[in-house]
Design brief:
By secondary structure, this protein is mostly helical. The chain is built from eight helices and no strands. α3 runs parallel beside α6.
Length: about 210
Amino acid sequence: MSLALRKFLTYVIGILILTLGIALTIQSKMGTSPFDALLVGLFRSFGLTIGSWEIIVGLTMVLLNAIAQKKRPEYLALLTSLITGAGIDFWVFLLHDWLNPATLIGQLVCVNIGILLSGLGIAVYLQADYAPNPIDRMMLVIRNITGLNVSLSRTLINVILVLLAVGFSGPIGIGTLLNAIFSGIIINFFMGLIKHGYLFSTTEAH
C-alpha cells in the first residue's frame, strides 16, 4: 500500500472514529462539544440533518477564513466537513433507535465513551496530516489577526460557539464541560501512542 493511500485511509478512519464519538455524546443527552451543540441546535431550529449543518457551517468557516486572510478558499478543508457530516448522520441514524440511556449512570458512560472516541479520532486523523479542519484554521486566523495565543484563540471560538448553541437550543450540559476539560488531554495521550508507533502509523515499513 502506498504512503499516500495509507494516509488517506488513516484520515478517513480517524474521522469515522471521531463521528462515532460525536454521535455517542449526542445520544447521551448530557451535552456535546460547543461546535457539535451548535450543529444540533441548528438541526432542532431549522431541520435538515446534523451532518448537513456540519457541511454548511464548515463551508461558512472556509469562506470566512479566506476573507480574513484575503486568500483563496481552502476547499480541501471542506473535505473534512463533508466526511465528518456524512459520518455523524451515519452513526446517529444507526444509534438513534437503540441507544437511548435512561439512567444517569448510562448517560455518563455514553458521554465519556463518546469523548474518549472523539479524542482518539482527532488524534488519528491529525496523524494523517491530509486536509485542514476549518475550525482549527479559524483558530490560527484569529491568532494571527488578534495576536492572541492558540489557547486563547480556541477559547474565544468556544465561547462564541456556546453562545450560538444556547441561542439555537443546542445541548449544552455536563458533557460540554467534560469535553472542554478532558478532550485536549485525551488527544495528547493518543497522539503520544501514535508517535511511538502503537496506533495508526502512516510511515513506511522498512
